[in-house]
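It is worth pausing here to work through a concrete case rather than discussing structure prediction in the abstract. The textbook approach is simple: state the sequence, then state the predicted structure, then interpret. We follow exactly that order.
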Amino acid sequence: MNSTKVKLMCATAGAGAVLAAGGLTVALGAVHAPSGSLMSDTPSATVGETATTTTTAPSAPQTPVATPPVTATTPEGFATP
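Step two, the predicted structure:
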């Protein structure tokens, strides 16, 4: 066989594979499509209403600056802060 015939056979096989994959996708997609018959008559969960209020930001932070509760002394020979 020459290379032209081999290329034509490969192209035909590839096109057939693409068409087969597309056909399978359509066929399986139709089987797994959701239907309305699975819906139940039970009530669905509800969530309470959301209340949004607009407030202005405080001018100062709510918490004071952290200060250590323990004080330490600098040992002799070290620089004092």
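Step three, interpretation. The first helix runs from residue 3 to 31. The chain is about 35% helix and 0% strand.
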